[in-house]
Amino acid sequence: MYKIAAVVLYLLLWLPGVQAQSQPAAQPDLILQLQLSPGEKNILSSYTYKTTHPDSATAATEVRNLLYKLHQDAYLLASADSLYLRNDTLHVKLHVGERLEWAELRNGNLSEGILIESGFREKFYRNVPFKPAEYARLQQRILDYAERNGYPFASVWLDSVTIDNGKISAALMVEKAFVVTYDSVQVMGGSKTKPKFLMRYLQLYPGQPYNQEQIEATQRMLTALPYIRVTRPPQVRFARNKARVVYYLEDRQANQIDGIVGFLPDPDRKDKLLVTGEARLNLRNLGGTGKTIGLQWRRVNKGSVILNGEYLHPNLFGTPFELGTRFNLLKQDSSFITIEPRLQLGYYTLKYGKFTVYGEWRNARILSAASTQSLLNFDLADARTTTYGFNYLWNNLDDFYFPRRGRLAELEFAAGTKNLLRNPDLEKSFYDTLDMRTTQLSIGLRAENFLRISKNSVLLTRLQGRALLNDQVFLNDMYRLGGLTSIRGFDDYFFYASSYGIGTLEYRLFTAADSYVLLFYDQAYYRSDLERSEVSGWPLGLGGGISFSTGAGIFQLVYSVGRSEQQPLSLKYSKIHFGITSKF
Asked: What confidence score (pLDDT) does residue 26 get?
């Protein structure tokens, strides 16, 4: 009776379409009538289905859907044996059959690794209903494990199938076929990126077992590189138990030379404007090897200068690790100067992320022109700080420069020791109340979400913040806020903060792939915990701007106003920043 049951396990029954003569518009809806045995009527009472339909085609579809539900609930022998149309009624003779159950599902030849990864246990398949969807998921978990471990051509099937009184006994078997290993990486599409660099960055080493999940992850890793564009999904070519992965890439104009000019009211001369500026040079993917050099110079206000430098060297000694160095210099008018060199080691994971560990050596010095009162109040201090920390960056944005969807999250933590240095202009007794050696911690967080709300518009929400944890925080230790990259509507480095948080809501309307107009609102909170004074506030900034491509590069203009305890919300204090970013 059940000789064909093993075949039925793998088939879905589809009813042929029923042709019906066209009915006049005033004809009532077609009635679906199922013919069942008394016992089967009790089973079907727990299922819902429509009994009236506009035509026979939709009625037949309803019968197919009902059969699908029965099959999913282990009534695998359910079928529509006959159907005919009479007047306004479609008669269907439905056979439900008995509900099949697992008597047992034995382990045929599954290894311990497959058992663990798939979650298969024989006890889960004793005297329970046979559900095709559940069995299909088990098959897929086994195949996924095989694809991750070098067997992309594996297959799964049931062996020694027997059915007795509606109970199925079988052995679960897997055939791995042959092991496949990586052979090489090939770059097509005109990119100058070297396959050797790409192989190490994506961690696709020759001789390593093929991993389908890894291939899918490499597509996400490529979007994190600012100097290439993926034009189509990668292809895998198999030959002689080897896999060659072909990537279709184009180079982007990622090398950058740009400058921004800002006009601010001159605090010394009210009828004049103070010109500020910034210049930036970024050279990426040098020689197609992923190396990066960056330089930045900024003049934020009168007498204050920032100089930053960076060098990134991927594939250190042929490994997937990235060596990086940074140099930051800040000269605050004639008060102080800080120098911060950093050495870091980064590693890209297959799940969107980059993990970095670093060491940083910060040297803060008071300039001779600093006010004596600042020294006496311990607002400023000479100090040398050594910190070690880690940073984790998670990024699945769909584009490096102009994202329209995706999320970004960054977490940083550092700990170290700060040593105060005695200033020769002060007597030794001034340091009697201070700890010359303290432990210092810092925490940083950044989270961004790009939500595409229409074809050409995007809503950006951002939260960023940092905190410096030390019992002795000085003015030249603090973070600096204000300007185009933090709280818009204020001068660059307008606020000193030992801890802060900034929330941003920004609407972007794209007029082209690389051009958009924007409206934004920045809301911040900051604290400045000095030895003899504590300051906090809730500054906000709002405004709009535009960014569009020209023959010479990308032109940007942002107009903003801000409000804080020190600055009212007034057009008199508005800020205008504009500049052009040239890429080559």
From this structure: 45
Task: Report which residue type is found at 173.
Answer: M
Instruction: With H, G, I as helix, E, B as strand and everything else as coil, classify residue 38.
Output: helix
In sequence order, what DSSP letters do the residues of 149-175 get, joined into one string? TT-TT-EEEEEEEEEETTEEEEEEEEE
- The C-alpha atoms of residue 166 and residue 101 are separated, in whole angstroms, by 6
For residue 149, what pLDDT is reported? 92
Closest CA to 215 of 226, 227, 203, 225: 203
Q: What is the DSSP letter of 316?
A: G
User: For residue 19, what are the contacts with CB-CB under 8 A and spacing of at least 6?
Assistant: 56
In whole angstroms, what is the distance from residue 572 CA to residue 562 CA? 10
Q: Residue 358 in contact with residue 390, Cβ under 8 Å? A: yes
What is the Cα 27 distance to its own chain's centre? 56
Q: Which residues of the chain have pLDDT under 50?
A: 1-26
Sequence letter at residue 111: S
Tell me the chain's radius of gyration from C-alpha atoms.
Answer: 34
Residue 239 backbone dihedrals phi, psi, to 5 degrees: -160, 125
Residue 317 has what pLDDT?
87
Q: How far apart are CA 447 and CA 502, in angstroms?
A: 11
What is the reported pLDDT for 299?
79
190 by DSSP, 3-state: which? coil
Would you say 552 and 582 are in contact if contact means Cβ atoms under 8 Å apart? yes
Residue carrying the six token digits 């895998």: 236
Give the pLDDT of residue 3. Answer: 35
Q: How many CB atoms lie within 10 A of CB 144?
A: 15
Return the bridge partners of 281, or none: 257, 295
The three-point CA angle 18-22-26 to 5° equals 125
d(CA 291, CA 268): 44
What are the backbone dihedrals phi and psi of residue 66, each rounded to the nearest 5 degrees, phi first? -65, -40
What order do you get walking across the sheet with 242-251 strand by strand?
A: 181-188, 242-251, 228-239
Q: What's the CA gap between 353 and 342, in Å, rounded?
A: 21
Measured in degrees and rounded to the nearest 5, phi and psi for residue 81 equal: -75, -35
Sequential DSSP letters for 504-518: EEEEEEEEETTEEEE
Q: How many CB atoms lie within 10 A of CB 471?
A: 11
Nearest to 185 by CA among 240, 241, 248: 248
Cβ–Cβ contacts within 10 Å for residue 187, how many?
A: 19
Residue with tokens 């089973």: 43
Instruction: Read off φ and ψ for residue 11, nearest 5 degrees.
Output: -115, 145
Instruction: Please give the torsion angle defined by the CA atoms of residues 110, 113, 114 and 117, in that order, rounded to the nearest 10 degrees.
Output: 160
Q: What angle do CA 349, 353, 357 make, to 5 degrees?
A: 85
DSSP string, 557-575: EEEEEEE-SSS-S-GGG-E
Structure token pair of residue 385: 């700080």
Q: Is 35 left (phi over 0), alpha (psi -120 to 50) or beta?
A: beta
pLDDT at 4: 35
- Token duo for residue 563: 């409000």
DSSP-derived pairing of the beta strands 406-421 and 101-107: unpaired
Main-chain dihedrals φ then ψ at residue 22, nearest 5 degrees: -60, 140
